[in-house]
């Protein structure tokens, strides 16, 4: 979980997640939302994939990227557990 927080500390990676919230996209579609190079985008996507925040699936000659909602569910459960007071239901 510590690595996920480190990854989310980067503004560009958070924006990639925001972009992917709209729909699953290819690298080219994601790149339209940014001014940095394709290599930089690929680096960010690789980091997001390593933390399982983003998953990829090959569809023909393209790779589609999408959010991995199960990781976000785990994070929400962690936050609820941390901030929930003993005996209190949220």
Walk me through this protein's architecture.
There is one protein chain. With 90 residues, the protein is of the alpha+beta class. It has a single domain (2-83), classed as Winged helix-like DNA-binding domain superfamily/Winged helix DNA-binding domain (Arc Repressor Mutant, subunit A, Orthogonal Bundle), CATH 1.10.10. The chain is 58% helix and 13% strand. The chain contains 5 helices and 2 strands. Strands 1-2 form a two-stranded antiparallel ribbon. The protein is elongated and about 50 Å long. It starts with a helix and ends in a 7-residue tail after the last helix. The model has no long low-confidence stretch (mean pLDDT 90).
Provide keyphrases for this structure.
Arc Repressor Mutant, subunit A, 5 helices, 58% helix, 90 residues, 2 strands, two-stranded antiparallel sheet
Using the coordinates above, name the CATH class. Mainly Alpha
The oligomeric state of the chains shown is single chain
The tally of strands reads 2
Q: What are the secondary-structure elements, in order, as H or E?
A: HHHHEEH
Summarize model confidence as the mean pLDDT: 90
Q: How many helical elements?
A: 5
Question: By helix and strand content, what is the structural category?
Answer: alpha+beta
- Judging by the overall fold, what is the CATH architecture? Orthogonal Bundle
The poorly predicted ranges are: none
Describe the secondary-structure layout.
Layout: H1 2-8, H2 11-22, H3 27-31, H4 38-50, E1 54-59, E2 62-67, H5 69-83
Antiparallel strand pairs: 1-2
């Amino acid at each position: 979980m510590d690595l996920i927080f480190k990854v989310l500390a980067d503004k560009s990676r958070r924006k990639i997640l925001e972009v992917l919230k709209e729909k699953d996209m290819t690298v080219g579609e994601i790149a339209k939302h940014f001014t940095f190079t394709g290599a930089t985008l690929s680096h960010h996507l690789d980091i997001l994939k390593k933390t399982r925040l983003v998953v990829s699936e090959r569809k023909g000659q393209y790779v589609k990227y999408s959010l991995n909602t199960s990781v976000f569910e785990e994070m929400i459960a962690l936050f609820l557990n941390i901030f929930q007071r003993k005996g209190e239901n949220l």
